[in-house]
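B., you asked whether I could sanity-check this one before it goes into the benchmark set. Here's the sequence:
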Amino acid sequence: MRRGGRGSRRVCWVVATLIVVPGVLIGAGFPREEPECAPPNPEFVAALEQLRTGRLAEPEWGYSLGYIPPPVDVSHTMGRTPRTITRLGLPSSYDLRSTGRLSPIRDQGACGSCWTFGTYAAVESWLLSQVPSVVRDYSENNLKECHGFDWGPCDGGNYWMSAAYLARGSGPVREAEDPYIDDPDPSGCSGAILACPNPDGQPVWGSVARPVVDAYVREAWFISGVDKDTDPAPDYLKQAIMDYGAIGTSMRWESASYNSDTYAYYYSGTGSRNHAVALVGWDDTFDRNLFPTPPAGDGAWIVRNSWGAGFGDGGYFYISYYDSRVATVNTVFADLESPEGFAIYQYDPFGWCNSWRWVDDNVDWGANVFTAETGGVLIGVGFYTTDVDVEYEIDVRMGAPWGPSALPATISGTCSWPGYHVVDLPTPLPISQGDRGAIVVKLRNPTYPYTMAAEYRIPGYNSGATANPGESYLSWNGSFNQADWWDLTNGEPTANFCIKGIFIDAPTPAAFRVTREGRVRADGAYWGSGFITTAADLAEWVPVSEPVEPGDVLELDPTRPGYYRKARRPCSTLVAGVVSTQPGVVLGHSEDTLGRALTALIGIVPVKVTDEGLSLIHI
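And here's what the prediction gave me:
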């Protein structure tokens, strides 16, 4: 899966503020249009130049900043609402602080790591929004030390870097395993392991302890920026706060724009964004006269900062809807699952750095070719989308992108927001060691012509990015004809598409147990036959959203709050217990067991270990 760089003609790179797009030799059978990549984000180009000359913003008031714009420009999504978003009647004010869906305020100290705190404010809030009992404190230190980009731990970053780190399976890890310090860590990066943590949260690997990835983030969305001229406080952003919790965003911080008496902030200039924070609510009636300079109207976002509880209103403050820089880029991290047993086949450790197109019809096919290092099961495909309401089709083809399909039918759907997504295969695909195949993704964008997200080397940002011929391909029609596929390194020798294969280890017999913290543990893998038969110490009746049987592992159903369903992954962060028939003590009672299950909370319980209905391959 790894690769070294090599020379070739280049169609896309950043040199100061210049984009060079020379011609590409196109063979017979190709359309007349040449493949090309999108122009980079102008704010990013300017930031690279400022970094080179040491002119990035210095801390103000003794507080550090640290947001640096990403290389990708998503301004084409500004103000756009996906057609799949249900519009609900929204209150005039909403505050996550009153809902118990926020973790405690943190302090970044004298380090330009605000973006890591904005990231985990969103991740931790999503978990609390799904399961109030799941309280996590994730390690900003591990993210700032192990992001892998060229910038130092305290030099700054952005949410695209966070998405790359999470999507490649480097985190999150728990704070206790890699505690925060507000300087570059003398120990450097403590690389984490894709494995399930022990019940006490402390991993042991022989005589060396290493952090363990606590969850895999399956969704990272870059929600449309606010159009300040038409709707400075759009419903889609408010609805996202209510649905998913805190939203990572960015702003321009200048101390003269802040009223410390009223905790109110309003900036109306054109400076670039330099600080990452999180939106946690809104107030449509917040008085415009409370800001240092009155904006055009009332209303403010409630914002979580990373400067400790001594700043503002217990660590929070209020930004005017009419602020010129806030909420122009907004990020949600959602749908966490256990990573145990995962093997992520990928060529893009630095994630979405640019986008490609071929024919100017907003439809393209991209493919990554992988060779299985071990036997296993392909259970999902990860990829990025670059527009709102993107339609996708996924295929797996044998040998090459033009090889025969290995799936009974392509998998199709729509991604509402641009960003990273994981789509599960309806039927997991067994893979043998040495098998070679291509994951093919067709994307259709409504408006933005550059459909396929890619990684490529940008000096001063991700100098470690490399690629090899034969790894990533682009097609204008997705045919089974080799002549219709173009090797991406023909245009940019360090480019690969952001398409990942999510594998799990080859199934073997396993034994399950429930720890006293309610976590299901597996001794072995996750497929086999038989039962382990011992009664539970403690159990309770819970409502279920689908039929369950004794021995089924249950987790909270994120689609129906308060209900439980069969777990989809081993050691899921949402796991609540196992359906039991012989508990020692039952909490509560149930007059009618229809739609309810007796769920074990403590002890070793009978657990179904079977491939019936392919259930356990999904838990």
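One thing to flag: Helices lie at 42-53, 114-130, 140-146, 159-167, 235-244. Otherwise nothing jumped out at me.
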